[in-house]
Amino acid sequence: MTLLRPAVTMLVIGCAFAADSPLMKEGLWSMNIESSINPAGTTTRFTASMCRSRAYEAQKAEEAKGKGTCKTPVTRDNGATQETVIECTIGGATTRIKETVTVTGENSAHTITQSTFDSPIGGITEMIVTSDMKYVGPCPAGVEPGDVIMEDGKIIKPPKP
Length: 161
Fold this sequence. Notes:
Blueprint: H1 4-17, E1 27-38, E2 42-52, H2 54-66, E3 69-70, E4 74-78, E5 81-90, E6 93-105, E7 108-121, E8 124-137, E9 148-150, E10 155-156
Antiparallel strand pairs: 1-2, 1-8, 2-9, 3-5, 4-5, 5-6, 6-7, 7-8, 9-10
Helix pairs in contact: 1-2
């Protein structure tokens, strides 16, 4: 679980910056995720679901901007593929996130979120999170936007500001 938390956190952050993605449909998304963490060379695969809402993700993007100096996200849209790049400097450390979202059907998408950290976070300098996502339907009762439901049913709440 220790290595899953950074992957889930980067996924939530990436989703926040992609809130305007044409893929964005509010509700529960099932995700098959592969996370590669460097320099450890560790790859983790897991399945989870995430409750998404435009309002929540826009709020998280604003909060992230308020925590440091973030450049305005650069978004390139090429039909079914949207690429968003964000760079933030927090406490002197720069984090770069590039998320590529490719819509693969009305209710499905493939995402690649590449993150690099000038100052390692727990020894991590780079993380690549790849996810195949599928829209499931409305979020279940008791699950709030930003919540991630792991395979075992455990709910991971998003990081607090």
